[in-house]
Amino acid sequence: MYFIGAGPGAPDLITLRGARLLGECQLILYAGSLVPGAVLEHAHPGAERFNTAGMHLNEQVALYRRAREQGRNVARVHSGDPAIYGATAEQMRALRELNIPYEVVPGVSSFTASAAVLGAELTRPNVTQTVILTRVSGRASPVPERENLPSLAAHGASLCLFLGGNQLPHIVADLLTAYPPHTPVALVQRASQPGERQHVSTLDRLLSEIRVSEWALTTMLLVSPALSDPETSSCLYDPAYAHRFRRAEKPGGEA
């Protein structure tokens, strides 16, 4: 049994291991509302496939049990990386109760894919060295009160907010309690997929520039002072910086 991170959507952003296992498994369960069909091009053509968008947990576990009885390998395909908002914990718990071994194959998360779309580095020296991954409460997964947005925003770090496109007015109001109004922000929708688009702005201008309903689904919000391309650099590649693999150069170019 394999939990496979499908990546952000582009079929060539799944890992080599994930693609190989997809091609070997006889039973495939995938989140059809989030995993594009193009990713399943890596699957074995004869594999039995189930879209889990309309299935509850017991129905999925019944398939895992049937696969064990039949001696078949299972690929459970999740968007992005299974460790982030993948609803995998309850599946793993059920597998442990059934004594079904499983392996997790990590994938490219949508927050890193979104940063790539923007050509941005989310950790900049003397600006921020912290990335916060979070979301707002939904019906299926409430967020603990201690992790409310104003308290997270108070750190002033790079913040990547998943699954919040339909709550943008509320989100922006909460973020403005701590981030300066001119803080750079970006919306990235369907990163790496056909129809990908982005909107770059500042926290105080964002809502006046977009139609919120158009960004309701499959959207990542990035908030970070690092998005403004501040003129800061790491010392790592400075000629005068020495480490175990490189000697420092003197001002004249001499090592």
Concise summary:
The chain has 255 residues and is an alpha/beta fold. It has helices spanning 16-24, 57-70, 89-97, 110-118, 149-153, 168-175, 206-209; strands at 2-5, 27-30, 48-51, 74-78, 103-105, 131-135, 158-162, 184-189, 197-202, 219-223. A hairpin with a 7-residue loop joins strand 8 and strand 9.
Protein model, in words:
The protein has 255 residues and is an alpha/beta fold. It has 7 helices and 10 strands. A 5-stranded parallel beta sheet has the order 3-2-4-1-5, sandwiched between helices. A 5-stranded mixed beta sheet has the order 6-7-10-8-9, covered by helices on one side. The radius of gyration is 21 Å and the shape is globular.
Keywords:
globular, alpha/beta, 255 residues, five-stranded parallel sheet
Describe the SSE topology.
Blueprint: E1 2-5, H1 16-24, E2 27-30, E3 48-51, H2 57-70, E4 74-78, H3 89-97, E5 103-105, H4 110-118, E6 131-135, H5 149-153, E7 158-162, H6 168-175, E8 184-189, E9 197-202, H7 206-209, E10 219-223
Parallel strand pairs: 1-4, 1-5, 2-3, 2-4, 6-7
Antiparallel strand pairs: 7-10, 8-9, 8-10
